[in-house]
Write a structure and sequence with these properties.
The protein has about 130 residues and is mainly beta. It has 1 helix and 10 strands, in the order αββββββββββ.
Length: about 130
């Protein structure tokens, strides 16, 4: 059994801030935990816009606080996000994530992240094969 509290993650290598400083992710479960998926609490910082394209991963996100929007770049549709909104990137959709206020998001990735990933210039997380991460 794995039991963790988010406060145990803060300030450790499992708390990652993106190079663009638009988000902070607290990675509660990673690939090395052996669950087959990773599980994160991610804060999207107020007033920011992040280009994201998970071409190597599927992601489901549940908002538990804040307000923002997601724009699907394949069709230009903009969907509001607030407490209680879920979205799933089942087609590897390239998108913008915009936060009006801090967004507190609960995220699940498959394949599981190692914890070393950060978005590249296209908004992509690389597919890291190293199991020792």
């Amino acid at each position: 059994m794995i039991v963790r509290h988010v406060d145990e993650i803060k300030g450790t290598e499992r708390e990652v801030t993106g190079d663009t400083n638009t988000w902070t992710s607290r990675r509660l479960l990673l690939r090395k935990d052996g669950m087959g998926f990773s599980f994160h609490e991610t804060i999207i910082h107020a007033g920011t816009e992040t280009l994201i394209w998970y071409k190597n991963h599927l992601e489901a996100v549940y908002c538990v606080g804040g307000e923002g929007e997601i724009e699907d770049l394949s069709d230009g549709k903009i969907h509001p996000i607030s407490d209680g909104t879920m979205y799933a990137l089942n087609g590897h959709e390239k998108h913008y994530l915009r936060a009006k206020t801090d967004l507190r998001m609960i995220c699940v990735f498959t394949p599981a992240l190692t914890g070393l990933e950060d978005h590249d210039a296209d908004g992509v997380y690389p597919l890291i094969e190293d199991e020792c991460a």
